[in-house]
What we know:
By secondary structure, this protein is mostly helical. It contains 14 helices and no strands. The chain starts with a helix and ends with a helix. Keywords: ANK repeat.
Amino acid sequence: MAADQEQEVSRSLGPLFSIRKVYDLFVTDWPAGCSTDQDGASVAELLIEACRRNNTDLLTETLSSKTDAEITTLLNETTTVMGNHLYHEAASQGNYLLLDQPSFECDPINRLEGDTPLHTAIRWLNKEPLAQRPFGKALVAMMLEAGSNPRVKNKGGLTALQLVDPSNVELRTLIQQHEYASQNAGDFITLDASATTGSKAKSAAAVGAGQGDSSDEDAEFSGSDDEERAEWERRRREKRKT
């Protein structure tokens, strides 16, 4: 576009033209598959608009001609001028339909605060009326189930839990329970048959050590073979000697 034509368009469109020029100036590192068509909105602009408006139809239409690899790249690498990822944009409006997309990475970090989308969703909810809290709780629960990590700290050193309004007890409890379950996920194991058999002798010995009367000890004994019985008898005799 020639300089004189650009000036004429700028005068006609006013702020709208300026905004578009600023957007194109700063968003120059487009993800693969994302064009900057001067005759219309770019793929990045359409995706950002879809996430801000909770518009799944626009999202689907924009990505319909893309491969799975291109879709994943576009959803996770497209950012706004302010450094927000698409997931942040959806979270900043509480747009649950856009947050529930399988190709999103759960914990991208934005440029300004170092927030994850979970941080962003909680900031949004803190500003909403109390009547929105049940919805906000369900939204955060969905994000946690999808894999959002509540232990990530932003640039201020704050986790998502630390951003929650202190009066929102239910949301705080939800996040704390999720943190506990995540931290202890490896502590719950299923014993196999051999481990169970090996533990019987230890259980029998512990029962014998805690009982003084032989008839009570026999009643408590749960051994199932001769070796276990012999070990239990030996430990009982040693106990009586002391």
